[in-house]
């Protein structure tokens, strides 16, 4: 029966037939992002001065400038040193699956390894970057698994004033840097932002144009922010973060596209724990 099911998955195009392995995906990620980090050619004095010039712009113009430079590779190279998150998933019938997916070790930033700022973004801009970087946005279950496997877990730092101000984005970044003693994280860092997630709660919300946010785990492992779609999709504040998930993953050492796993009724629960697990993306 399992053999028949396996060939049905092949016929549907869900499984990528190859001699795939963890090493293969690691190499694939390195090849794709190494060239990006090398071609970055942005001649700006500092991230702080660049962001100061953007501070008076309307949000759409601000994000147009951000994506212009981030798409060119003006991002810290360590953002692209994707880390593997692995665990065992057991379905309702008791069958076990070995799951592995790859994530950016920190939330996306603008700048270089020496001078950068973690940058909250609208879901539209986040989706554009995810598309360009062969990635998807995480589900809530993925966010939980990322936190479980994180090597660096920091206490959340809530702020209450001027939450959607660019200056507050920068302030929050440097508060996080103080926790890290200004070191580049060696591994996955978590607990510092709410994730912008893909969720069908966006589509089921009677109000259109929503963004889904989730996470910001405390040190006890409980998220401050439950899944929430109350904000319009142009809203962004200091607490939002964009973490990318590479578009391919492993299930029992077979390579799948994440979107196909989410669209497969048998496998979707391995990376999604919502009532309706279907791949979704934000319109951009």
Automatic annotation (TrEMBL):
Q: Which PROSITE patterns match?
A: PROKAR_LIPOPROTEIN
**Stated name of the protein:** Lipoprotein
**What is the source species?**
Aureibaculum marinum
């Amino acid at each position: 029966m399992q053999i028949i099911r396996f060939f049905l998955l092949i016929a549907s195009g869900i499984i990528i037939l190859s001699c795939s392995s963890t090493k293969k995906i690691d190499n694939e990620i390195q090849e794709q992002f190494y060239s990006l980090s090398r071609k970055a050619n942005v001649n700006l004095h500092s991230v702080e001065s660049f962001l100061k010039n953007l501070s008076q712009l309307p949000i759409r113009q601000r994000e147009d400038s951000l994506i212009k430079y981030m798409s060119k590779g003006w991002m810290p190279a360590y953002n692209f040193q994707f880390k593997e998150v692995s665990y065992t998933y057991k379905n309702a019938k008791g069958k076990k699956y070995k799951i592995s997916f790859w994530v950016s070790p920190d939330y996306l930033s603008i700048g270089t390894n020496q001078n950068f700022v973690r940058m909250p973004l609208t879901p539209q801009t986040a989706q554009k970057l995810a598309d360009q970087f062969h990635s998807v946005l995480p589900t809530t279950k993925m966010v939980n698994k990322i936190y479980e496997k994180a090597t660096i877990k920091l206490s959340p730092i809530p702020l209450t004033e001027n939450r959607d101000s660019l200056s507050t984005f920068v302030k929050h970044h440097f508060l996080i840097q103080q926790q890290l003693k200004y070191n580049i994280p060696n591994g996955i860092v978590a607990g510092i932002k709410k994730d912008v997630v893909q969720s069908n709660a966006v589509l089921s919300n009677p109000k259109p144009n929503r963004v889904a946010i989730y996470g910001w785990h405390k040190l006890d492992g409980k998220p401050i922010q439950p899944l929430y779609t109350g904000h319009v999709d142009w809203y962004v504040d200091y607490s939002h973060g964009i973490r990318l998930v590479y578009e391919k993953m492993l299930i029992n050492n077979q390579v799948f596209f994440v979107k196909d796993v989410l669209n497969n009724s048998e496998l979707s629960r391995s990376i999604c724990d919502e009532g309706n697990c279907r791949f979704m993306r934000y319109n951009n």
